[in-house]
Design goal:
The chain is an alpha+beta fold. About 45% of the residues lie in helices and about 15% in strands. About 5% of the residues have low confidence.
Length: about 220
């Protein structure tokens, strides 16, 4: 009986000791991980113009332009969709050209001029493309809409500049404004609600006026 009591006591002590050891190891690992991560963070200064305003940020060198806009400048109109450059929800314009901001590091854009959906227009003074999207019901859930609109504005700039697409590959001929041309140029922006025909209608209306004005 005495041996059984000793055996039970030793088991109890073993369980208590093991639990304490595991807790200590876990705490040590957590401290090491936290210390390791903090040691790896390298901050760098970057300056660029966003929607007409000069911005100065100290960022982790791994910060994407998308996260800089959303998390640091609180410009949440630009959406994070796939985060792999496949859906176009994060489209913004940099120096007049559209890019997927999730694929670009913020530090790559020193002194660049960046325009997000917030910089195109306001509720009191909509950009022509924003107004056309409303008029033609070119959205449903609206999540992709900021990227769609930014891309659409850039498309018109491309057409007016004579930049060809896969549909219009002749460098000596101005791009033809039709559904195929617009669809090709907007193919990088996915609308999971399927409002594509309405989006094309909105772009066609604005592009028709812009192209005529440019000519």
């Amino acid at each position: 009986m005495e041996n059984d009591n000793r055996l039970k006591l030793s088991r109890r002590e073993m369980i208590i000791g093991t639990t304490a050891a595991i807790s200590a190891i876990a705490a040590t690992k957590l401290t090491s991980i936290e210390a390791g991560e903090s040691n790896k963070i390298a901050l760098a200064d970057v300056s660029f113009v966003v929607n007409g305003k000069k911005q100065h940020l100290a960022l982790d060198t791994r910060t994407t332009l998308l996260d800089a806009l959303r998390e640091h400048l609180k410009l949440n109109g630009t959406k994070k969709g796939c985060d792999h450059g496949q859906c176009g929800a994060c489209t913004v314009m940099v120096n007049g050209r559209r890019i997927n901001s999730c694929l670009s590091l913020a530090l790559q854009h020193e002194d660049d001029n960046i325009v997000t959906i917030e910089g195109l227009g306001s509720p009191d003074k909509l950009h022509a493309m924003q107004a056309a999207f409303i008029k033609h019901d070119a959205y449903q859930c609206g999540y992709c809409t900021p990227g769609q609109i930014c891309s659409a504005v850039a498309v018109i700039n491309e057409i007016n500049s004579g930049i060809p697409s896969h549909v219009s590959t002749n460098l000596n001929q101005s791009p033809i404004l039709n559904n195929d041309e617009i669809g090709e140029r907007m193919s990088g922006n996915i609308c999971r609600c399927g409002a594509y025909s309405n989006i094309v209608e909105a772009i066609t209306e604005v592009a028709s006026k812009a192209v005529k004005k440019a000519r």
